[in-house]
C-alpha cells in the first residue's frame, strides 16, 4: 500500500495545483506578503505534537486562524481509545473488530489511504494541511509506552513533513491530569512515572522545534510567528481576534477565549516533595528549562 500511495507524489505524476479558492484569512496573507512553504514540492504535511493538558488546543486553534490553514485535531491512527464497537464511519476502528482483526500495518495503510484524499483536497483548495497529534494514547496510556510508530514516522513514509512540539510546565500538566482523572491512564500514576514518559515523548520527537505554552501566553504574537516559521505557514497578525471563532476537539482543560497566564492549581505540599525527590522529574525540568517554583 505504501508504494501504491507514494507513486502519486513522485516526479512527473504530480497533478497540477489548482488556483487557491478565496478563504477567510486570504486578506491577511496578502497584506503580509507571506507564502511560507512555497518552493517546497510536494507541499509538506504539517504536524503538531504535544501531550494532554499542555495547552495544545489553544495553540492549535490559533494555528487554525492562520492563512489558508486546515487543522485536523487529535490524530492517532493507532490510538487505544476506541469508543465501543459501533463505528460505522471509522474503517480503522471497524478493522480492529473484524474477524480476524486487522494488524497494525493494515491500519496504517487505511490511514494513509484516507490521508491521501485529504492531502489532495488541501492542495486543490490551496490550503496547508496540519495534523494535531493525540500523543496521550501512545505515551501516557497502559502499563508502558506503546512501542509503535509515531504519527510523524507514519506520515513520513509518504509525505514530506514539517513538525514542532509544544510543552507546558510538567508540574502544572500533572495537576491538570489529576483533575481530569487521566493520570489513571498510566501505571503507577505518579509524578515520577509521568516524567519518565514525557522523556520518552521528547526522545521520539527529537529534532523538532520546541514551543513552550508559557512563552505563548506571555507573548502570543511573537511566539505564533515562530510557530508559523517552523511549520512553513503564512502569518495572520489578527489571529488573536479571530481564533475564538474556531472550534477544535480536545478542549479538556480550563476553557475560555483569552490568551493569558493562569495561576497554578491548588495541590498538597507532598506533591512538591515528590517532585524534588524524583530524578526523572528534575532532569525533565532541566531539559525543558523550567523551575519548580
From TrEMBL:
Q: Which domain of life is it from?
A: Bacteria
> What InterPro entries does the record tag this protein with?
P-loop_NTPase
Q: Does the keyword Amino-acid biosynthesis apply?
A: no
Q: Where is the composition biased (Basic and acidic residues)?
A: 7-21
In this chain, the stretch annotated as Disordered covers 1-38, 251-272
For this UniProt record, the keywords arranged alphabetically read as follows: Transferase
Q: Name one GO molecular function term.
A: transferase activity
Protein name per the record = Sulfotransferase family protein
